[in-house]
Amino acid sequence: MPKVKLTTKVVENATTPAPGVQIDLFDASLPAFGLRVGGRRKTWFVIYRFGGKQKRFTLGHFPALSLSAARDAAGKALEKVEYGEDPAAEKDAAKARAHAALEQKAATGFLPESFGSLASIYIRQECPGLRRGSELERIIDREIQPAWKDRPAADLRRRDLTALLDPFITAGQIQKAHKVREIVVRIVNWAVDRGDLEANLLVSPSRGRKRSGILRREKRERVLSAEELAAVWAGCEELTGPFPAIVKTLILTGQRREEVGAMRWAELDLENGLWTIPSDRYKTGIVQVVPLTEPVKEIITGLHRLSDDFVFATKKDSHFSGYSKCKARLDAKVAVQRAKAGLPNIDSWTLHDLRRTLRTGLSELRVNTDIAERVVGHVIGGVQGVYDRHAYLDEKRDALERWAAKVAGIVNPPPANVVQLHPDRAAG
């Protein structure tokens, strides 16, 4: 067993005396450490005795593993032997874990202890009991799993969350970025509560510090003016498909986008003009009954019935999706119309602003605050919310009919040369 002073130059020039022959060069400064030269490979190794047996432990190959790095690895391996640990056994265990991980991925699609594995358990155990469980599952599968499913959950940090959200923010999908952030934080918190993770390192340790940057939530107060509402309605007139019908229904009912977009035929009683949204589909977890005015019934009955389940469908087995693209097309239509009329474009608005616009409009129509809150499905607090179980359908219908009449006057104003008489004067 020749001992030489191993240097990088010596290692680079080391060759075998004949084809098919292997030689071992042992380091003069660390005798248990050496280099095996054979064929086209040069392999670092360390020799040690453990459990009464001599063992050879492979460290790696040159030049992928440099001389200095190999010597350090040999020293660490010998140090483990001194403490009663077998470096080869540890390596074998690591190989076994890697093999088991690959077997689990082949069986489940996820590596053990990965975010994907935790998220799949969350979907299986938690989503069925959530009101919007199917929506959460869809977002997890489409927006989060492709990037994170093989990432070790314990290694995820705030910078990883930033990298996940940046593409949404760059694309202007701020609400989607908020939703994705909310879901991943929820999953990690759930995993911490289960004991799968020690801590949630995706969020700031400073609970009192407000989030900065574009994702800092600001309370929106946007209400569309009558002119803006008319512009949006006119833009819808130039579009086809379920989206413009959804927007008009949002304007006339004040319900949330998700509730309108996933409306089911089974929830409708068109003869009596009622739409009953079940509690498992409503944000507040209550049954919400929405009186349908004549304009809303005309919108619904005028649709091409593509699905026997969903009202606003683009496919037979699913409700409407693709809000961002359709909203962008609507904004473009509105901008062109305004430009042709020599008018400035309307400021940025969201579909949820239509809900706030209706609620503000009900106040302007002097609708009782309690009734207006029930129209939009807000939870009535205090003793009244606990004990008053009356549906107030007649009052809600009256409020929505008054709002529908106001909207009709906004989107189809009478000619300028027509003078509207007060109802009492017209009767006289």
What share of the residues does DSSP label as strand, in percent?
A: 5-15%
With strands numbered from the N-terminus, the spatial order across the biggest sheet is: 1-2-3-4-5
Rg computed from alpha carbons, rounded to a whole number of angstroms: 34 Å
Round the mean pLDDT to the nearest integer and report it: 86
Separate helix tally: 17
Secondary structural class: alpha+beta
Shape: elongated
Order of helices and strands: EHEEEEHHHHHHHHHEEEHHHHHHH
**CA-to-CA gap between the ends?**
122 Å
Q: Segments where pLDDT lies below 50 for 5+ residues?
A: 423-428
Number of DSSP-assigned strands: 8
- Fraction in helix: 40-55%
Largest sheet: 5 strands, mixed
Q: Quick recap of the structure?
A:
The protein is α+β, with helices and mostly antiparallel strands. The protein has helices at residues 8-13, 67-82, 87-108, 115-125, 133-148, 158-170, 174-194, 226-237, 242-253, 257-261, 294-301, 323-340, 351-364, 369-375, 382-387, 393-411, 423-427, and strands at residues 3-4, 22-27, 33-38, 41-50, 53-62, 268-269, 274-277, 288-291.
